[in-house]
Fold each of these.
Amino acid sequence: MILTVTLNTALDVTYGVPELVPHASHRVSDMSERPGGKGLNVARVLSALGHETAVTGFAGGSTGAVLRELLAGLPSRDANTKAENGATPAAAPITDALVTVAGNTRRTIAVVDRATGDTTQLNEPGPLVNADEWTALLGRYEELLTGADAVALCGSLPPGIHVGAYAELVRLARTAGVPVLLDTSGEPLRRGIAARPDLIKPNADELARLTGSREPLRATRDARRRGAHGVVASLGPDGMLAVTPDGVWQASPPAKVLGNPTGAGDSAVAGLLSGLVEGLSWPDRLRRAVALSTATVLSPTAGDFDRAAYEELLPRVGIEEHSTAA
Amino acid sequence: MILTVTLNTALDVTYGVPELVPHASHRVSDMSERPGGKGLNVARVLSALGHETAVTGFAGGSTGAVLRELLAGLPSRDANTKAENGATPAAAPITDALVTVAGNTRRTIAVVDRATGDTTQLNEPGPLVNADEWTALLGRYEELLTGADAVALCGSLPPGIHVGAYAELVRLARTAGVPVLLDTSGEPLRRGIAARPDLIKPNADELARLTGSREPLRATRDARRRGAHGVVASLGPDGMLAVTPDGVWQASPPAKVLGNPTGAGDSAVAGLLSGLVEGLSWPDRLRRAVALSTATVLSPTAGDFDRAAYEELLPRVGIEEHSTAA
């Protein structure tokens, strides 16, 4: 089982409007809701790849109840139908191991202008999490680690959670001997790295904020010196740069693609983590991560990946090994 | 008891953002939720004026549950505290007589740009209401009419409800001998008027759509000829024009005010309806409606009215009787 932790889960709401005009009134032409927050997105992709997953983090209030109801409906019937046809691996179950909190889970609202495809995002703050709820999460997390092959710690911190929370979770994973990937930003990332996670997956902006450098190789090496055993920097259309104890690789998508990058980073995390658990080589993990994240950009639904595109892209991802030592 | 009917109730959500930038990502800096839909707003104002009210219409799903929970908390403790001090009339109870439906009550999202105060509105479509649910509403409505001194039929129709729904509700009220005010727009207003409601309260745009005329006196008279016994046209900063069997009056606020007009029309409906039930003269009803709606524009919270402003404005509303016959 792969465990994902999402401390600041969200109900992701998408509103389509014919055209977004500031200070006007809009009738929403179409809407959808789905369980969100980075770790939940990672779990959905892992499930589609056939990996059993458990998700923990916090959920509460009426929005939390809707989120858990939608989560219970995953993996979708569509995914299973495809699996029965033998065309794709069966989607594996996602176990809801969320900790109930008194506060109301946040919503994120993506307003999509159907004329241009542009998205305007409104993110509610998360619920205030108290000390007892954090203690409950720690207990649940330690239990889950005993059955986990790997763990991903994902996204922002809700109000009330101390800035060293991810560092604490990294240490507990290392004590339990479970490989841990940290995907967050800002001060929680800085502190988390000092606790020596196996892998971090910053994008170029997060790396620059962490290290002060916009030169990918220099910044990635700096991030390793700060404590991360391996660093996979996601460089958008330029693919990924992996600096690891085993070597340095650059992975590039076969072509630039146009689409919605929402969730591409989460798909990359799922690719890296599933590859780790399956014992793939670094080049194969990177091929999977780049193909999944490109196929996510290409998907008509934000955050989903286009499976046909993924399978077509996978053998065409370019891998270049750097001769320089990590 | 005054009854208000809101077929398309809503959970009104307000998001404050530092500045709304299309196609950017925003952290919501403050948020609030309250029960909405025009009839619920009318009931809140009636309650603050000391009138017992019952609200019916449809509510369902997780959003409907949140709406009803918030409704159960009305009138607010603040209102009661003031009443104990003797400064203002005690807020009267609001009875939840909503009919439960399978669909999910809609949300409306008001995104307030805290830099400019401008509001961008996103309105979800309502839940699809089926024939059994409509029949249940009719039964509940007829029961409630037996104890009602007046009824207000307010707002848009949710999907699934026939366009003549308000006409049907107007006829039932007339059969029961309960004075009925209709506040809707478009085809439901046109059909509702033909069923001969006691009063309609269109704004200038609604009147123009109904009659084709932008000349208030002509359009208001035309609306009466179509079936409404009385017409009170709300003309924004120009106040209100009442064309009734008893005469024609123009009511004007003492000064132009700046603020948020959200809910001003609902406050006017509450003013007219409470004045009717209390047996006030037309000039006094209009004074109350204009003072309440101006005090709503002045309130810092959209849809609430500023009681001190209301009491100060009330004696200063200008009333002019037209010598022409209605």
Note: The first strand of chain A starts at residue 2 and ends at 6.
Amino acid sequence: MGKLYVIGIGPGGLEHMSIRAKEAIEESDIVVGYTRYIEFVKPLLEGKRVFSTGMMGEEDRCKEALKLCKEGTVSVISTGDSGIYGMAGLILELRDDEEVEVIPGITASSAAGSIVGAPLMHDSCNISLSDLMTPYELIKKRVQLAAEGDFVISLYNPRSKGRADYLRENLAVIRKYRNGDTPVALVKNALRDGQEVTIATLDTFDCTKADMLSIVIIGNSQSYIKDGYFVTPRGYKL
Amino acid sequence: MGKLYVIGIGPGGLEHMSIRAKEAIEESDIVVGYTRYIEFVKPLLEGKRVFSTGMMGEEDRCKEALKLCKEGTVSVISTGDSGIYGMAGLILELRDDEEVEVIPGITASSAAGSIVGAPLMHDSCNISLSDLMTPYELIKKRVQLAAEGDFVISLYNPRSKGRADYLRENLAVIRKYRNGDTPVALVKNALRDGQEVTIATLDTFDCTKADMLSIVIIGNSQSYIKDGYFVTPRGYKL
């Protein structure tokens, strides 16, 4: 039986993948992933079998990967970190006796943060606004508690056609606890082709720009913009 | 004037560094970092000038790096992600007109999570228990709100000699909101030499094992242990 790697490839551009992740893909006989993300690692796929499915096909992909590793070494890829809204959880939930190794990657909030400056320098949280598998009331409760705790907040899956208003509603919740001039960054396609960056404030942010390929980062009460960089101070007395 | 890279080298083992981070260090004339972390990238340092200081020397290192980039290309390195409790914030706070590029890395909670399974699969937060620059009351408030919101919680800097009781006190706060059988993982030296892993529960966890080189991850109400893996389900109906 082959080994099953669950790999976070990072933001998408090959150069932000870890050396270990690249080597594990190279070592694999079979690569499994969402069709769109398979494209990101195309230069590594020569001579390999590929199993890909569309969005929402996560469970099928995982089951297939667990079957395929009886035939050779398999890499299941996620963008970002495989353990943060990626495929690692589902693989381990479905795993029977297969040998699994999780290889971490740079998660989307780290990638987006690096592009706009250093917004995540203090206590922070990741919240997904997707309500496919989480009740919307719980999502809103988490946003409210994170706002109350003055966490820097990274919103994953901030907006889709089916829930066009969630982002606006949740920013309004945060606005109750933060000033209107709190920095808000939107990064679409962080560190890969098609990257777009917007830095605004809670009062000026245009929610309609966000989509499922975006990350939205909201600063804490100390965050500020300096020369175009979004900075959250760690607390040094300078 | 040279360029200034602020680089997250990931957990420490060279193979978990991004390809971009490695190339930026190779391209640099001068490398600046905490003495202990400079050791992690030693194979990349041949022929380069190195400026390192001990712990607490962050401000000196940043000021020196900003000076040195007038003489050549400089890399300032942090472990993990440079933008998460790393050097990116301080560099941008102190920056005048130097050209700065932040290069992200795999943060410690991602690294630790990958080792124990997939604990970070749902909404999560990073909280540092260090009160050097954050009032302890604010830290405890954040832990309490994160517990109330059923976030997976990653504790950075969980324990030092000067604050031996903080970890125990904060786990007791979390215990008010979670069952005693909630999984708790301690990973010391994640993905580098000296790695040690303990998986326990809120009721059985031994706080005295934690130190400044450790990350402690506390599951949410749905997290469980399966075949030795710490899994937080994403919510798929399997």
Note: DSSP finds seven helices and 13 strands in chain B.
